[in-house]
Amino acid sequence: MPIEFDPKQQVFHLYTDGMSYVIGLIKDIYLAHYYWGARILTVHAASKWRFGPRPNTPTPEYPDLTLHLDTLPQEYPTHGRGDYRPPALGLTVLDDGVSALKLAYRGHCIERGKRPLSGLPAAFVTDEAQATTLTVELGDEAVGLSVELSYALFERFNLVARSAKIVNAGTRRLAVETAMSASVDLPHDAYDILHLWGAPLRERMVERQPLAPGTFRFGSTRGASSHYHNSFFALLRRDATEDTGDVYGFSLVYSGNFLAQTHVDHDLSVRAMIGIHPFQFRWILEPGEAFQTPEALLAYSGEGLGGLSHMLHRFIRQHVMRRPFGVTERPILLNSWEAMYFSISEDRLLALAERAAEAGMELFVIDDGWFGERNDDTRALGDWTVNLEKFPSGFAALAEALRSKGLKLGLWIEPEMISPESALYREHPDWVLRTPYREPVRSRHQWVLDLSREEVVAHLMGVIDALLASAPIAYVKWDFNRYLTDVWSRALSAERQQEVAHRYMLGLYRLLAHVTERHPHVLIEGCAGGGGRFDLGMLQFMPQMWTSDNSDAASRIFIQYGTSICYPAIAMGAHVSSVPNHQIGRVTPLGFRAHVAMSGNLGYELDLTALDASERAAIREQVRLYQEIRPLVQFGDFYRLVDPFVTRDRASWMFVDEARREAVVFYFQILAEPNSPVRRLKLKGLDPQALYEAPELGFVMSGAEWMHAGFALPTLASDHQSLLIRLKQVP
Ligand code: GLA
């Protein structure tokens, strides 16, 4: 099995063809981290660490003066016995206040396959042979604590899925205050950290910076993974590039508050961890109870950031997105939002649908405004029944009308929310997430439902089941348009209030598990005021995300490029919208907008009835072209060629199929340059020996020539111009 235990050296070697992850026991007690990186064939544990006295450093195994936790690389560090770096686990024994822990090895087990995590999304296998799981049990006898660390190794990926289960195996009550999903101590070296930050309308901007001594942390305390920081980061050896070098990716399979943290210590080792944010988190464990952390994916690439992205993209499609969505094509959709906002009615939508059908689109999505008294964003969230004034025939008849045009029906919902002005609020004012003292803070005029409560989740299950039973609805856009405030639940005692944010997530996951089990063929697109919950937890249930509320193509180049570092194109909802763009007023050509949107999951979000015949013909052609390249975009390997975060005015990327027979290249000139230099574009990912022809350019070259010598880009005369170049192998 690709996880081996060497009892003599007390070492676990987890390996794939391309990676080794080595951990082991020191003095039969401490679970140490020995190595993570390119595959090694032998492990000589003693060569990995130097023991010896160090000045002013506590010695937990006195009289042995050579062991110090403050520098020992560990797998799940605690604090209180001489390790002063940030801990992975922090807890307090409630009746005496003790918090210094000593976790000691108790046993382990290695088994085929991978188990699901109770109540939480997690990477899955479709066949036991795809993964092997190591569980290491650590314990603190005196405290009555047991910790089960789980390592699921996916053999076709250089990837380990880690999580921890904290068990109160004693007789006293415990309060868990920090419980990271994974922590790794990488040896002395110079690393950079790359992370994805931003804000609404400019999500997932790429930032790479050197790590320096001290702590660097980011995360979210907003009740969702957030627009501001994505729950992913990569550590890169300083010499690593897009195509070369060692890169370590960390991604959390969770959608709530999270912390990502690195700490460079006085030995220049890096402790890297990711998990639930400890701020305002405290989970009480009664004797016999357990706390399961979310899962973190730890992926290694020796082929730079691009190599890491390829692996994560494939992995997310195959082992994170629920079946069948990671492996089946997504429909080209028309969304009503930017086309009509709240001014929707059956007649207007059917006229729009007529045009969408003419253009060859496949799915028609009615966005906000179809339910209750929802005529603007101040009311009716919670009242999920169709407004019969706007839709006199109801959705079953509408779905049938759409079907006759070749379109499926999709609907927008925002089930986690409640408007103060709604029938739901009048009936259940106590279901709002709020403290007992004052009215909760509004955001977009709305409040959040307390999903930590069973009856609220049960109500939403019933509502969504009824809606999906009312008509053949093929798609749901599940929105979440504000962050949590006033986090307090009347269902919990005072000492458990810091469990609410996580219990909210558990309630949401329970709801999503119910909906996706009951309605497995309904495609759910996640949205959170755009890309405010673009994370692996959501992607399990909602295999595509509305990437950003910013639909401007020039901005989207940056957003989609940044998003691609971790997430595959099939996850990114990308729409062609009208000009001047509704978010920033920019005017760009229709072709440019389409090329950006075709680089993700193509959709249209504009009033097709207001376009002239030539624009409609152009759109029909775009839809046809996308249908041809869709397998490449949605399942191919994505290569970044020109980085807009470096150039600011140009970008390029390409998709290559697994067999390297076909590719599609996109080049974007964001801003034109007068008398510009001759620029050569060099491709990636092709078979160097094979010949490829590019009909758009009119020539044939070997893969090696396309990749190493490249080709001179034609002059593009003005701002916002783009090229789409298809490559096909010729015999
Ligand atoms: C959010 C979404 C938009 C749209 C509106 C509807 O802002 O991000 O795409 O669905 O809600 O109110």
TrEMBL record:
<dbReference type="InterPro" id="IPR013785">
    <property type="entry name" value="Aldolase_TIM"/>
</dbReference>
<feature type="domain" description="Glycosyl hydrolase family 36 N-terminal">
    <location>
        <begin position="30"/>
        <end position="286"/>
    </location>
</feature>
<keyword id="KW-0378">Hydrolase</keyword>
<feature type="active site" description="Proton donor">
    <location>
        <position position="549"/>
    </location>
</feature>
<dbReference type="Pfam" id="PF16875">
    <property type="entry name" value="Glyco_hydro_36N"/>
</dbReference>
<dbReference type="InterPro" id="IPR017853">
    <property type="entry name" value="GH"/>
</dbReference>
<dbReference type="InterPro" id="IPR013780">
    <property type="entry name" value="Glyco_hydro_b"/>
</dbReference>
<dbReference type="InterPro" id="IPR002252">
    <property type="entry name" value="Glyco_hydro_36"/>
</dbReference>
<dbReference type="InterPro" id="IPR000111">
    <property type="entry name" value="Glyco_hydro_27/36_CS"/>
</dbReference>
<dbReference type="InterPro" id="IPR050985">
    <property type="entry name" value="Alpha-glycosidase_related"/>
</dbReference>
<protein>
    <recommendedName>
        <fullName>Alpha-galactosidase</fullName>
        <ecNumber>3.2.1.22</ecNumber>
    </recommendedName>
</protein>
<dbReference type="GO" id="GO:0016052">
    <property type="term" value="P:carbohydrate catabolic process"/>
</dbReference>
<feature type="domain" description="Glycosyl hydrolase family 36 C-terminal">
    <location>
        <begin position="651"/>
        <end position="727"/>
    </location>
</feature>
<dbReference type="InterPro" id="IPR031704">
    <property type="entry name" value="Glyco_hydro_36_N"/>
</dbReference>
<dbReference type="InterPro" id="IPR038417">
    <property type="entry name" value="Alpga-gal_N_sf"/>
</dbReference>
<dbReference type="Pfam" id="PF02065">
    <property type="entry name" value="Melibiase"/>
</dbReference>
<dbReference type="GO" id="GO:0004557">
    <property type="term" value="F:alpha-galactosidase activity"/>
</dbReference>
<dbReference type="InterPro" id="IPR031705">
    <property type="entry name" value="Glyco_hydro_36_C"/>
</dbReference>
<dbReference type="Pfam" id="PF16874">
    <property type="entry name" value="Glyco_hydro_36C"/>
</dbReference>
<comment type="similarity">
    <text>Belongs to the glycosyl hydrolase 36 family.</text>
</comment>
<keyword id="KW-0326">Glycosidase</keyword>
<feature type="active site" description="Nucleophile">
    <location>
        <position position="479"/>
    </location>
</feature>
